[in-house]
Automatic annotation (TrEMBL), chain A:
Naturally occurring in which organism (per UniProt): Demequina mangrovi
Domain ABC transmembrane type-1: 97-311
One BP term from GO: transmembrane transport
Segments of this protein annotated with the region Disordered: 1-22
UniProt xrefs under Pfam families: BPD_transp_1
Annotated transmembrane regions: 32-53, 101-122, 134-154, 183-204, 240-262, 289-312
Keywords for this protein: Cell membrane, Membrane, Sugar transport, Transmembrane, Transmembrane helix, Transport
Keyword Lyase in record: no
Protein name: Multiple sugar transport system permease protein
Localization: Cell membrane
Family per record: Belongs to the binding-protein-dependent transport system permease family.
Superkingdom per UniProt: Bacteria
Membrane disposition: Multi-pass membrane protein
GO CC entries: plasma membrane
From TrEMBL, chain B:
A Pfam family recorded for this sequence: SBP_bac_8
Keyword line: Signal, Sugar transport, Transport
Gene3D superfamilies: Periplasmic binding protein-like II
Ranges for region Disordered: 23-43
Amino acid composition bias (Gly residues), ranges on this chain: 34-43
Organism field: Demequina mangrovi
Phylogenetic placement of the source organism: Bacteria, Bacillati, Actinomycetota, Actinomycetes, Micrococcales
Signal peptide: 1-23
Protein name per the record: Multiple sugar transport system substrate-binding protein
Superkingdom of the source species: Bacteria
The keyword Kinase belongs to this UniProt entry's keyword annotation: no
Length: 320, 427
């Protein structure tokens, strides 16, 4: 919950000059509404240029029929919701939606569970624990092109290390990223690996905020490790868990890069998620179709927004 | 900063500065004179800077290619500012710059994208620039022709062939000269497989590269891009599917890009690889002896492979006075001597005119096979497909991938592909 401290400092900074000795010359400067506007202007311009405009432009793209000619000449025909209807009625839509659901759902469950397990494991400091913890951050630090390509190589059907290993223990090789049955699973595995550090870091810092006295009291009452976890750690970690899962959800919904690098959404659309579909429509073929792409993108924003609202509701209920 | 009045003054100054900077930015970008190609022109004849975009980021400043581009500028008495992009990025950049009115003066673009871009009206035709394109080989120029008007000139051409590992073929008792049709190719692959080596690899990736690699087999079977589910087309798909099913080709071929397929081949454990003329230098440097043959059609003879290579084009400018120098730059790239020079700079480009080809063969008699292959090649957007090609191609590679991965049978996959392609192009 990083917002609270920042807001506080901002507030403090605003108050500071007010407490200063008041001289009339200064007052005119301080009281001027122009100053307020000048301070707010960079932020407002930033918000408009980098948030409002792209959003409006994306909606604008999705309700017009922007083929390439119209994109260049700027005379796209207004088609209302036709792009959305086309997307939803496309026979790719149910598949992409289901893949997105699996990709996000399975990724989050495993990222969170493994991240939490590691966070609890690292709660007690031991020798080299900080070094080990740092090593777990590696997936986060590597450029995605590197980690995704490495996963693709490891999962290579013929010369990948995973199949070599399976062969060594007497199992049949699996066509990880070239079979429609396992392509989605493969990208999910890679994505889980990528998401663990994020969950670990946030949950670990959440654990630091649980006072030791609670654990001491539990120990005195004779609670074992299992009971301590379910009765103390897990409930006290709930607010942090909620924000971790929400952020993970939003991040995972819009993942394009790892899927694109590993499978391009294929073979036969078996690993196509909504985000990858949107990217492919816009940039993946020789014929950019910006309008359907932005329609899919906007649907994704709506989905993310629904989860955001759900989170806010949950938080309100917690506060009451 | 202990003094509050200083603090306030500094704060005010900072805010004002920030606002000023932002205002400065916005006024800059709205100034029509300050952007891109149409900028510091005016005196077109009397020097100036001309912008040039190409898809060769591997050729850095100071490379032979960069120097060659600059020499064309020097000849026209101007400075050329060259910016290389990755192929896909280049198409996107061109679209954006065309929308903003900041197109470069000269651009080199991969041939299947030419008709798409010409359709936007953002490209000046070669007629308008005063070029006669009748000397250019028709099959190579076709990709740049929309409704009978040429929008670009190929600066060279490349195409696909079958490279082989001579040592593996010898060990398996296969004579590369015996491979003349699909049956003899399959027999050769079986022999290599029997001798314990991987028989063949190729790029079946789900992008334009996948279609590019599949087309020689598709066309070689006698199939047509307007009917993806014809018996001939299905037969071509089945050829690839069988290679995978029999273990002659690796599973990874489904996700291989052309570079990855080439890397596999360089590993020295694969008999054949389908790859482009641009690998000819790399093949010569391989740790084993290599050779190449043309891709066989189903019933013998050379299969029409798709032409590859870039077109030189002139995007439309608001200041038409710039075209005069632009023409001189294009001219410098497209004379017979210019073609040969380009071919030598790249070491794999075949000149697109008969005159250029003759000069080229004289200097490099060993590359005559490539010249023949280029003459037999076929443009992907030809057959009057134009801007429909990318839509069809997307369905083609999707269908081929679906069949190879076993998601659908070859017939089902191509039926689906044809249905989707018809829906996409019917609009």
């Amino acid at each position: 919950m990083t917002t609270t401290p920042t807001r506080r400092t901002a507030h403090a900074a605003k108050e500071a000059p007010m407490q200063a000795p008041k001289r009339s010359a200064q007052r005119t400067i301080h009281g001027s509404p122009w100053i307020a506007a000048a301070f707010a202007a960079p932020l407002m311009i930033y918000l408009i240029a980098f948030y409002a405009y792209p959003l409006i432009r994306s909606i604008d793209l999705s309700v017009h029929d922007y083929n390439i000619r119209a994109f260049v000449q700027g005379d796209a025909e207004f088609v209302g919701l036709a792009n959305y209807i086309d997307v939803v009625q496309s026979n790719l839509f149910p598949q992409a939606l289901w893949n997105t659901f699996l990709f996000v759902g399975v990724s989050i469950v495993f990222q969170y569970a493994i991240g939490l397990a590691l966070a609890v494991f690292f709660r007690h400091n031991f020798r080299l624990s900080s070094l080990l913890r740092a090593l777990f951050l590696v997936p986060w630090l590597l450029p995605l092109i590197v980690s995704a390509s490495t996963w693709a190589w490891m999962m290579n059907s013929d010369s990948g290390i995973i199949n070599s290993f399976l062969g060594a223990v007497g199992l049949d090789p699996v066509n990880w990223i070239t079979s429609p049955d396992t392509a989605l699973l493969s990208v999910i595995i890679a994505n889980i690996w990528l998401g663990i550090p994020f969950n670990l870091v946030i949950l670990y810092s959440g654990l630091q905020n649980i006072p030791d006295e609670v654990y001491e009291a539990a120990a005195l009452d004779g609670a074992g490790a299992w009971k301590t976890f379910w009765r103390i750690t897990f409930p006290l970690l709930r607010p942090v868990s909620a924000i971790t899962i929400l952020l993970g959800l939003v991040y995972t919904l819009k993942v394009v890069d790892i899927v694109w690098i590993m499978t391009k959404g294929g073979p036969a659309n078996s690993s196509l998620t909504l985000a990858v579909w949107s990217y492919r429509e816009a940039f993946g073929t020789g014929q950019p179709a910006f309008s359907p792409a932005s329609a899919i993108g906007n649907l994704l924003i709506v989905i993310a927004l629904v989860f955001g609202l759900f989170y806010i509701r949950l938080q309100r209920r917690e506060e009451h | 900063m202990r003094n509050t009045s200083t603090k306030a003054a500094v704060a005010f100054a900072t805010a004002a500065l920030a606002a000023g900077t932002l205002a400065g930015c916005s006024s800059d970008s709205s100034d029509p004179g300050s952007s891109g190609g149409s900028s510091d022109g005016g005196g077109a004849a009397a020097g100036g800077t001309y912008t040039w975009w190409d898809p060769y980021p591997q050729h850095e400043d100071g490379s032979d290619w960069a120097n060659r581009v600059q020499a064309c500028g020097d000849e026209a008495g101007v400075t050329i500012e060259r910016t290389p992009y990755d192929t896909t990025a280049l198409t996107n950049q061109l679209l954006l710059s065309a929308q903003e009115g900041t197109s470069p003066d000269v651009v080199l673009l991969d041939n299947p994208a030419v008709s798409t871009l010409a359709d936007t009206g953002a490209i000046v035709s070669m007629d308008e620039l005063g070029f006669d394109t009748s000397e250019i080989d028709e099959n190579l120029l076709a990709a740049g022709v929309v409704d009978g008007v040429a929008y670009g000139i190929p600066i060279g051409a490349n195409t696909l062939a079958l490279y082989y590992n001579a040592e593996i073929l010898e060990a398996a008792g296969v004579d590369p000269a015996s491979v003349t049709d699909w049956d003899s190719l399959n027999a050769a692959l079986e022999a290599i497989d029997g001798a314990g080596s991987r028989a063949i690899t190729f790029a079946g990736i789900g992008t334009e590269e996948g279609s590019f690699q599949f087309l020689p087999w598709f066309w070689g079977a006698g199939a047509d891009l307007t009917e993806l589910n014809s018996p001939e087309a299905v037969e071509a798909v089945q050829l690839w599917v069988d290679w995978l099913d029999k273990g002659w080709a690796p599973q990874s071929a489904i996700q291989n890009s052309q570079n990855t397929a080439w890397e596999e081949f360089l590993d020295g454990q694969t008999g054949f690889v389908e790859n482009g003329t641009w690998q000819v230098n790399s093949a010569a440097e391989a740790s084993f002896e290599t050779g190449y043959i043309t891709l066989p059609a189903k019933d013998g003879g050379a299969a029409p492979a798709p032409t590859g290579g870039e077109f030189v084009m002139a995007p439309a400018q608001s200041d038409s006075a710039r075209y005069e120098v632009t023409s001189q730059i294009v001219e410098c790239m497209t004379t017979p001597e210019g073609f040969v020079e380009t071919a030598e700079t790249f070491a794999y480009y075949i000149p697109p005119t008969a005159a250029g080809q003759e000069q080229f063969i004289e200097a490099h008699p060993e590359l005559e096979v490539w010249v023949d292959a280029v003459r037999a090649a076929k443009g992907r957007t030809s057959d009057n497909l134009g801007t429909d090609y990318p839509l069809i191609s997307e369905q083609l590679w999707t269908g081929v991938q679906a069949a190879m991965s076993g998601a659908q049978s070859a017939q089902e996959a191509m039926d689906t592909a044809q249905e989707a392609a018809a829906a996409a192009t019917g609009e």
